[in-house]
Amino acid sequence: MKNANWVEEPDGYLNRTPIWQFILVTILFALWAIAASLNDILITQFKAVFNLSDFSTAFVQSAFYGGYFVIAIPASMFIKKNSYKLGIIAGLAAFSLGCFLFFPASRLVTYQIFLFAIFIEAVGLSFLETSADPYSSILGPRKSATVRLNISQTMNAVGDIIGILLGKYLIFTDGNLKEEMSRMSKSAAVEFGKEQLGRTLEPYKYVLIVLVIMIILFAVTKFPTGKPKVKEGEKQATFGEAMGYLIHNHRYWHGVGAQFLYMGVQTGVWSFTMRLALDMFPSFNERFVANFMLYSYICFFIGRFVASYLLSKLPETWVLLAYSLLGTLMIVYTTFVPNITAIYAAAGVSALMGPCWPTIFARTLETVEDKRFTETSSAFIVMAIVGGAVLPAFQGLLSDATNMQLSFILPAIEFALVGLYFFSELKHDTHPMANKSNS
C-alpha cells in the first residue's frame, strides 16, 4: 500500500516511520501503564477497607493479568481477521467499560465486583497490547524494530508515574487508613470504608475522558495494515498452521517462559513495595509510602532510557544479562536487610527491570521467521503476562506464612531465571561485538 508518508514492504514493515501514527500507538503504552500502576494503589486501599490477607490482595493482579491471558488469543484472531487499528479501537472500548464499572462497584462495596471491573478493564488492555506491541515494532524499517518498541515502552514509565500520582492525591489521604478504621466502631468503620472506596472513582473519571478522545483519534486517522502481503495463490495462515509452526520453535517458547517469569518479578515487586513499607514501618501512611512507588517508576523510566542507549552500542544479551543479575542482587538485599534501605532497594530495582519486557518481546518475536504467524505468536507472548497473575499470588501466600519482607525472595529467584534466559541467548545475538566474543 502506497501513501504520501510510507510504503509497506512485503513483510509488513514500512520504509519509514509515520510519526503521527507512531505517537498515537505509543500513547497506548502509557494508558495501560496507568491502569497497572493504579492496581498497586488499589491493593493497598482494598487491604485496609476489606481487611484482606496478602494472598487475597494479590487477586487484584490475578483478575488484571488473568484478563490478559484469557483474551490474548481471541484478540489475535480478531486482529488477524480485521486489522491492528480495529483491534486497538475494540481494546479502548472495553477498557472504557471496565473503568465505568468502577462506579457501580464503589456503591455496592463488594470486593468481587471490583475484581470483575478490573477483569473487564484487562480484557480491553489485552486487545491493546496484542495490537500495539507488534504494531509499534512494525511501524517503520525492520532493522530498527527493537529500538522502536523500546521507545514506545518508555511511555510505560510515564504512565506508571501518572497513575501513582493520581492514586496518591485522588485516592489516598494523609491518615493511615488501617489505623483510623481500627479506632472506629464497626458501623462507623463500614461507612468510612465506603467513603474511601468512593475515592477510587476519581482517577478513572479522567482516564475515561482520555479514552474517549483516543477512540475518536484512532477512528479518524489512517493507519498502515502492518501485515505481510499474501502471495498470489497463498492463503492466510490458520491458527492450526501457526501452532504447527510454533510448537517446534524452542527458542520462541523459552522467550515466552522468560516473559512469564519477568512479569512475576515486576508485578510482585510493584504490588508489594507499599505493603512492605507499611509492614516494616507501621507509623507510615498510605500517601507517604506511595512515594516509594513514585521513585520506582522514575527509576524504571531512567533504567529504560539508559538501556535504550546501551542497546544501541552493545549486544542486547550482554545488557540484559547484566541488568538481570544486578536486579537479582538488589531484591536479595530487599529480602534480608532489616532497615529502610531495603525499601529503597525495592524501588531502585525498577531501574533494572526497564528494558526486560520489550527486549524479550522483540527477541522472541524475531524467532518467528514466517511473518504470517505474527498475530498468533504475539498473542502467546502477551499471554505470558499471566505470570503477573500467578506468581504474586504465591508471593502473597509466602508473606502470609512468614512475613512480607521474606516473600521478596520469590521475585529474586524469578529475576535470576530471567538472567539465565539471556545467558542462553548469548550465542544467538547478531550484534557484531557479540559475534566477535562468541567466535
Automatic annotation (TrEMBL):
Residue ranges crossing the lipid bilayer per the database entry: 20-38, 58-79, 86-103, 109-128, 149-171, 204-221, 252-272, 292-311, 318-336, 342-365, 377-398, 404-423
Keywords: Cell membrane, Membrane, Transmembrane, Transmembrane helix
Primary location group: membrane
Localization of this protein: Cell inner membrane
CDD domains: MFS_FucP_like
Superkingdom of the source species: Bacteria
InterPro entries, per database record: Lfuc_symporter_FucP, MFS, MFS_trans_sf, MFS_TsgA-like
Topology relative to the membrane: Multi-pass membrane protein
Cross-referenced PANTHER family: L-FUCOSE-PROTON SYMPORTER
NCBIfam families: fucP
Protein name: MFS transporter
Organism: Lentilactobacillus fungorum
